Amino acid sequence: MDYLLHLVIFVLIYGMVALSLNVASGFTQLISLAQAGFFGVGAYTTAILGLQYGWPFWLNLPLGMGVAGLVALPVALVALRTVEDYFIICTMGMGVILFSVMNNWVELTRGPMGIPGIPAVSLFGHPLTEKWEWVLLGAGCYALVFWVANNLKRSALGRILVGISEDEIFCQSLGKNVGLAKLQSFVLGAMLAAVPGALYAHYVSYIDPTSFTIQESIFVLSIIIIGGMGNLWGGLAAAAFMIIVPEALRFVGLPGGVAANVRQMLYGAALILVIWLQQPKPTTGTVESGPAGRG
Amino acid sequence: MLQILINSLASGATFLLVGLGFSLLYNTVRFFNFSQAFVITSGAYAMFVTVIIWRAPLWMAIIIGASLASAIGATIEIYVFRQLRLRRVSSWGLLLTSLSGYLILQNTISLLFDDVTRSVRLGAVQVGHEVGGAYITDIQLLAIFVSMIVLFFVMFVLRTTSFGLAIRGISSNPELSVNFGISAERTILLTTLFSSALAAFAGMLSALDTDMTPTMGFRVLINGIIAMIISGVGSYPSLVGGAFILAMSQHTVVYYFGSQWMDAVSFIILIAFLSCKPLGFSGRRLKKIEI
Fold it and tell me: How confident is the model at residue B72 (pLDDT cuts 50, 70, 90)?
């Protein structure tokens, strides 16, 4: 039972990362491979503040979001000057740089040794130890992030973002500030990624840089592509699918190292399959139920 | 200091090889094909199997590695990317497919050969030849030599042969070239074969120099791509400069700060170039403005 709840918590955490990536790239279809890096920035910020200074989780969480936003701002300013494939390569570079910093700034992050013994979250003086309490916390945070993402989608900014994905130059010609919209969504996406990062750090209680590699970014990207770019509920379903299916490997009895390889192969295959089956002009996820003229 | 220069020349030569192969390919298919990273790795592992397991001579390894890599590159091209192009998948769709394809294939290599470092070093480590207080190994000399020959060969092919003309045509205007009777698919396939062979050479040289792991191809390819972008896409001779600038900055940083920053510095160079000189230093355009 605890194992199932553990899986639920992981689905919620990665579902949140997927939501944040949807905010950053799902609406605009500007693919970012730096998201795991921002997820890691959130995790490291709360872990270091919580462990070394003993600050409470509720203070660290907004701080983590702030730090992730601050890191994302220059990243966005540089990366958004490039287009299409170069944007992907550029964000991939940012991901590698963030990983290198986590891995090599040993004084701050302990490098590859990781940070063990991160304290559990305390709620009103009561430390969360039971799995179901974590599920509730995760679901609460998920609902909050979902609310933000969903409201963004319906807002004026969200409409500009969807417009960018369809025709950026036309959008610009209507007098919309395309650059600012992209910047806002990218930074907001990074800040939202810090929320699951903080939860991850406190839940697992141990973090090391290998959880925040480019492969993780590709993993999260495959979640939102399978769920449909910009489709928020689809992201949750895809996160559940992508986390639970590889867990089945555990029961087949593959040794740990092999299972890790097979897991990567599985999500690579899932990504290819989804791209293969896509309609010629991919607008999946942005066209949603509801009358076209609403809002 | 001279040592840094020599090391940069040698690794720059490898980057040049990858960059040449990759930019030929990129100019015809117009997306970043990351499955080439696997082609690089496969060249190196083919050499490992031939030389260490079968105990065959090195020249045989080079032939086997290059043909295997070409076969793999062509297979992926025919059965994956050609099909996706027919379905009009966008260039980021192709990029992500190639990246996932790379993940699948790289993990296959990990399963077959384990995630450990393999070496093809023959006999004891050689000190190399002394040049004014610095050392240069045979492998490094070989790398510089091979890449120079390949560069001249590529320039020769592009300038004088009909295949080269087809590549240049497809690079500058695919629709018009097709109207003039150049088969785009055939050109792309031939380019894939050729650039996969170059990728295999680069993989083998890199493996001879610094051993191999299943993920080596990605690092080698990324360096090639960065060299290509900073020198300006579509300009082959200036790749020499791009590869050398990249190698030089890597070795300088490694010398002063340590090798763990090597990956980061390549990307910092790339990002600096993309934000200051998005056309690369040769001034060729990255992308036409579309209206």
Answer: very high
> DSSP H helical segments within chain A, as ranges?
2-21, 35-52, 57-79, 84-104, 106-109, 131-154, 156-166, 168-173, 178-204, 214-227, 232-252, 256-277
In the chain, the amino acid numbered B238 is S
Give first-to-last CA distance, chain A, whole Å: 44
Contact list in B for residue A101 (CB cut-off 8 A) is 264
CA atoms in the 13 A half-sphere facing the CB of A272: 22
| Enclosing domain of residue B81 | 2-120+136-276
Q: Is residue B141 part of a domain?
A: yes
Q: CB–CB of A41/A265 below 8 Å?
A: no
Pairwise CB contact (< 8 Å): B267 & A93: yes
CATH number at residue B198: 1.10.3470
Average pLDDT, chain B: 83
Query: Which residue has tokens 């559990």?
Result: A120
Q: Give me the half-sphere count of Cα atoms (radius 13 Å) on the Cβ side of residue A159.
A: 9
Say yes or no to pLDDT of A292 above 50: no
Taking alpha carbons only, the member of A9, A205, A279 closest to residue B90 is: A279
Quick: pLDDT tens for A22-55.
Answer: 888 888 878 888 889 999 998 898 888 888 887 8
Looking at this protein, which amino acid is placed at residue A81? R
* B16 occurs within a structural domain: yes
The angle, 0 to 180 degrees and rounded to 10, between the axes of the packed helices B36-48 and B216-231 is: 130
* Contact call for A100 and B260, based on CB within 8 A: yes
CA distance B272 to B289: 22
CA atoms of B39 and B62, how far apart (whole Å)? 14
* Unique residue bearing structure tokens 């200091």: B1
Cβ-contact B60, A53 below 8 angstroms:
no
Query: Can you tell me the distance from the alpha carbon of B183 to that of A99, in angstroms, rounded to the nearest whole number?
Result: 43
For residue B6, what are the CA distances in angstroms to A196, B219, B229? 47, 20, 23
Answer yes or no: is pLDDT of A211 > 60.
yes
For residue B37, list chain A residues with Cβ-Cβ distance below 8 A. Answer: none
- Minimal C-alpha gap between B102 and chain A (Å): 8
What's the structural domain count of chain B?
1
Instruction: Centre a 10 Å sphere on the Cβ of residue A224 and count the other Cβ atoms it contains.
Output: 28
Backbone φ and ψ for B268, nearest 5 degrees, come out as: -65, -45
Band (pLDDT 50/70/90 cuts) for residue B196 is very high
For the entire predicted model, the pTM comes to 0.84
Contact between chains at A218 and B93 (C-beta distance less than 8 A): no
Euclidean distance between CA atoms B227 and A37, whole angstroms: 24
- Give yes or no for a contact between A183 and A80, defined as CB atoms under 8 angstroms apart: yes
Does residue B75 belong to any structural domain of this protein?
yes
Three-state SS for A290? coil
Q: Domain spans of chain A?
A: 2-210
Position B81 in a domain: yes
